[in-house]
Amino acid sequence: MTVETPKAKLKVALFGVGRLGSIRARILTNFAPRIELVAVCDPKPGSDKWVAQNLPAHVKFFADPEDCLVNGGAQAVLISTATATHAPLVLRALDLDLHVMVEKPIAVDIETTRVVLEKAKTKPHLKFLVPFCRRFDESYRSLKTLVDSGDLGDIHAVQTDCLDKQDPSGFFVNFSEQSGGIFVDMGVHDIDIARFYLDVTKGCPNPRKQVNRVFAVGQTAVYHDLNNLKTRDCDNGWGVVEFSNGKVLNFHIGRTLTNGFESATRVFGTKGSAIVNNNSVIDRVEVRDGHGVRTATTPDAFVLYDKSFVHDLEEFANCVLDDKPLSLLADDALEAGKIATALQYSFRNNVPVLFDEEGNPVLRA
Ligand SMILES: NC(=O)c1ccc[n+]([C@@H]2O[C@H](COP(=O)([O-])OP(=O)(O)OC[C@H]3O[C@@H](n4cnc5c(N)ncnc54)[C@H](O)[C@@H]3O)[C@@H](O)[C@H]2O)c1
């Protein structure tokens, strides 16, 4: 049986060809059958050469974001720039009536996140997607089906870790201020996936207030320069989130592993528990020799979640072209962003953070 490929393609402009953006560019041109990459923008010197050498000749290069937004010929944008630069690009794209997919997190603070989401809500005819990569991973999706089946009973707690490999170049130190800090940048994934499995509004006396309190601690085990930043950060952090219905997330995030990148998620139910990525292996090869039994770890999130970065684009294109609803809401990104920012604040100020009846963290500084 032959399956016909639908003819209509979504014209997309990509902003940012850094670590993730360069991967996105290759996916957009090779593995996204319903998307046509029409333009790429990155003001970083040398980006024009990278585009000329790696992408098809018809992809237009822009060094100026405004020029690309107005003259790129796109119907939709994918914003893959440093987090601190997301908001102005998203707001302008929405003004120009472009569909938006923007990498997590939306912004480094709650106020900006809220401004962006309120603007997106004024444009209900446009799709707006923040693609948390674990939600687009096949194993995480299987676990969601298991959780929803009820076979694990009532899911009362989630425990995760997300641990990057050490980078001797000190990338994480320079990256910290632009990314909002480790809880905002990395912890937001753990928070989002916990919200995905814990039914956080069920049994909640006030649905606006999904969280009671959060607490975070951190260390600088390797990258001591993080202590000297204007906005202090850590290279290992632990967070606890108590949701208003009594469910709990606890997680460990870090930047100092030596074997590779690990990212595990365990859900605890009243009838059983289940875990994804207990060992973040690159393949199923096990070496057994004089050192014992060992497997190779994935080097980074881009490899462990490689298919997610294809699946999310597929969903985005399908939902725009077929006018279908997306599988996650803009409000999911807002709730995760609020909790992540509260945890970053908790770590920096050595205090627990309570949430008020409107569902906002009470940040006193
Ligand atoms: N698992 C995930 O979902 C995941 C993984 C990695 C990164 N991210 C997110 O993706 C985003 C990019 O991260 P990265 O690691 O690739 O960053 P990066 O610093 O490697 O790359 C960012 C690029 O954006 C460019 N840029 C900056 N301002 C721009 C503008 N106004 N217009 C166009 N280009 C601009 C920079 O020159 C740079 O090349 C971040 O928000 C990050 O949080 C998500």
TrEMBL record:
Matches recorded under Pfam families: GFO_IDH_MocA, GFO_IDH_MocA_C3
**GO MF annotation list:** nucleotide binding; oxidoreductase activity
Name one process (GO BP) from the record. Answer: NADPH regeneration
Positions of the Gfo/Idh/MocA-like oxidoreductase N-terminal domain:
10-124
Q: List the InterPro entries hit by this protein, alphabetically.
A: Gfo/Idh/MocA-like_OxRdtase_N, GFO_IDH_MocA-like_dom, NAD(P)-bd_dom_sf
Fetch the SUPFAM superfamilies from UniProt. Answer: Glyceraldehyde-3-phosphate dehydrogenase-like, C-terminal domain (SSF55347), NAD(P)-binding Rossmann-fold domains (SSF51735)
> Which residue numbers delimit the GFO/IDH/MocA-like oxidoreductase domain?
140-274
What parts of the sequence cross the membrane?
A: none
Q: Which GO terms describe its cellular component?
A: cytoplasm
Q: Which family does it belong to?
A: Belongs to the Gfo/Idh/MocA family.
Q: Which PANTHER family match?
A: BINDING ROSSMANN FOLD OXIDOREDUCTASE, PUTATIVE-RELATED, NAD(P)-BINDING ROSSMANN-FOLD SUPERFAMILY PROTEIN-RELATED
What is the protein named? Scyllo-inositol 2-dehydrogenase (NAD(+))
